Amino acid sequence: MKLLAWIYLALGYAFIFLPVVVLVVFSFQDGRLPVPPFQGFTLKWYAQITSDGALMTALGNSALVAFLSSAVALTLGFLAAHGLARAVLPGSVLMRGMLIAPMTVSYLIIGLGLLTFFNRIGVKPSLLATGIGHVVINLPLCFAICYAAMGDHQRSAERAARDLGASEAQVLWHISAPMLAPALGAAFFLSVTFSWDEFLIAFLLTRFDVTLPVEIWSMLRSGLSPATNAVGSLVFLISASVVVLAEIFLLRRKP
Amino acid sequence: MTASVTISRVTQTYGAATALHEVSLQIEPGEFVVLLGPSGCGKTTLLNLIGGFAQPASGEILIGGRDMAGIAPAARPTTTVFQDYALFPHMTLAENVAFGLRMRGVGKAARRAKAAEMLALVGLPGREDRRPHELSGGQRQRVALARALAVSPEVLLLDEPLGALDLKLRRQMQDELKAIQRKVGTTFVHVTHDQEEAMALADRIVVMSEGRIADIGPPREVYLQPKSLFSAAFMGEINQLPVTRGQAGFGPVPGAGTRSGMLLIRPEAINTSQGLPLGEAVLTDAAFFGTHVRAHARLGALALVLHLPQGSDPRPGETMTLFASAHSFLEAS
Questions:
Q1: How far is B70 from chain A (nearest CA, A)?
Q2: Which chain B positions have a beta carbon within 8 Å of A159's beta carbon?
Q3: Domain boundary among B232, B256, B271
Q4: Count of CB atoms within 10 A of residue B75's CB?
Q5: Mind telling me how many Å the CA of B76 is from chain A's nearest CA?
Q6: What CATH code is assigned to A53-253?
Q7: What is the pLDDT of residues A1-41, one digit of tens each?
Q8: Residues of chain B contacting A156 with CB distance shorter than 8 Å
Q9: Residue B54 above 80 pLDDT?
Q10: Which domain holds residue B276?
């Protein structure tokens, strides 16, 4: 029975990770096509992509959009969550619902809506437009995580801080945010990985400066190559690193 | 730093419920006042109004003669020690204690020195760099006290600060709290539902019931000459003997004249030798309680509770002649 359990576990993980493993393995393919049989080990595809200016620019753009849009989404989400968790407002249930609602709308619809709207008000497709789009999709996530993490424990600490002379801004900065650090960290890193991988909105809202997923998509149009595998592996490596960083960050902050 | 607190005709309502009915109370500078009562009596509501966490529906609150209407907690000369400590878990003890000073723009070195001084005052010297989660409940409460005192408030508000501690620790903290209050001289307003704690700490006890002040005075007076049946019963066990036009079951009641009401006698005031004669009573049961022997006796139609000396060995069924060494008469209102 124990053996069966282990086999089940192995199969489960194989199912999840086999595509990634295949992707990574064939990024080292010494041949023109990333398909079996494996013809030998080479790093030349990595050399090729790291010397590809357009690709590296796109990677930089992606990182910029991911970090800045996540920072904005987290700030707005945190402030909204704090306000709605602490103050009794008319229609706060409706407000919470409206903040979460974009989660249920497909990225395609959000992208199309933003494209139409930006067109009307004269905002050109750009990294800024994409960043705004990523704030739209990540704000509900950041809000939900922050809102769920706020408890009575923080409430009484905030009350004590106010009693000791802290202004509302000081309460947020010195008490609420540090006490919620694990949740804020989790929301930020999740948001970064979502933005990093996001294709549809970035595709619709960029033109000359593109993000990495859009650049990879244009590479794929010219056919399969181990180079695309190499880019994929790189993207995976960075995503995984962000997750590992998040884990370390969160575990370290736990008292 | 110390100030008086004047509460005049304060009413507070929560929706349809009235939490305080026209409460008036004068607290002198440097006084240790304990608000005592069961849960829901309005004692915490009153404390929150003094601290500025709520605004009264009507009435005035003055601290040091200054009207506090519309003034936020941060701007009041008060600080609060909360029941749940409300320490900042992400800060060291020194940072916790110095938080109020930091908000007032005090420099780092001065803050650190003050934090060390305050931690020493509450019996935690040299613990500046510890964090709250490393401390026991009693130690956390000391830090909360140090933090509230560090900004030299004129009035310190304590919201059931010892409620979460076990009995032994609570008694110990009471002694220390009283000593600290004498040392700093700040006006303390302390909320509790424990009458022993109230008597251990207070210069004056304010007994509250259903949003009104039921009694007010020094512990001895509130215990021995209660001004209401509620406060008489809340301060401890008491025997109530009905008095009709100056006459109780055993005869005339001294000091009652021809009035009707209740004669109040504490169980430990009843003895078998001296004082006001109550008459013959039949002992129904007795049990050894360590400091005394607690017994029940039937006096006519009344059941009395009495505390007899530790050395006595009363037998159920025994007839005793009872006297009251202390008693008070409360006129029916």
A1: 14
A2: 53, 73, 82, 86
A3: B232
A4: 11
A5: 8
A6: 1.10.3720.10
A7: 789 999 999 999 999 988 888 888 888 877 777 777 777 77
A8: 82, 84, 86
A9: yes
A10: 237-331
Query: Where are the alpha helices (H) located in B3-69, listed in sequence order?
Result: 43-51
Domain of residue B281, CATH code? 2.40.50.140
Q: Which pTM was predicted?
A: 0.81
Residue A175 DSSP code: I
pLDDT at position A252 is 63
Place of tokens 């607190």: B5
- Chain A residue at shortest CA distance from B100: A164
Judged by a CB distance cut-off of 8 A, whether residue A166 touches chain B is yes
Local structure of residue B267 (DSSP, 8 states): G
Do both B316 and B264 map to the same domain? Answer: yes
In chain B, what residues touch A174 (CB-CB under 8 Å)?
Answer: 88, 99
Read off the pLDDT of residues B206-254 as tens digits, 9 standing for 90 and up: 999 988 999 999 999 999 999 999 999 999 999 998 888 888 888 888 8
CB within 8 Å: A164 and B82? no
Domain count, chain B: 2
Residues 6+ apart with CB under 8 A from A11: none
| Residue A234 distance to chain B (closest CA, Å) | 36
What pLDDT shows up at residue A251? 64
Tell whether B233 is within 8 A of chain A (Cβ).
no
* B319-324 β-sheet, strand order: B270-271, B319-324, B276-288, B293-299, B302-308
pLDDT value of position A20: 86
Radius of gyration of chain A (CA): 22
pLDDT tens-digit profile of B257-279? 888 889 999 999 998 888 888 88
ipTM of model: 0.81
Last residue of a domain, one of B185, B211, B232: B232
Q: Using pLDDT thresholds of 50, 70 and 90, give the confidence band for residue B32.
A: very high
Q: Check residue A255 and give its pLDDT.
A: 46
Question: Nearest to residue B87, comparing CAs of B44, B162, B148?
Answer: B148
State the pairing for strand pair B155-159/B78-81.
parallel
CA distances (Å), origin B293, targets B265, B271, B324: 17, 12, 16
Do residues B312 and B333 make contact, with C-beta atoms less than 8 angstroms apart?
no
* Cβ pair B72:A162 closer than 8 A: yes
**In 3-state terms, chain B is what percent helix, strand and coil (to 5)?**
30, 35, 40
Mean pLDDT over A145-158 rounds to 88
- Residue B19: CB atoms within 10 A of its CB come to 23
Q: Measure in Å the smallest separation between the Cα of A154 and chain B Cα atoms.
A: 8
Please answer whether residues A213 and A199 qualify as being in contact, where contact means their C-beta atoms are separated by less than 8 angstroms: yes
The reply to whether B116 and B39 lie within a common domain is: yes
User: pLDDT-based confidence at A253, cuts 50/70/90?
Assistant: low
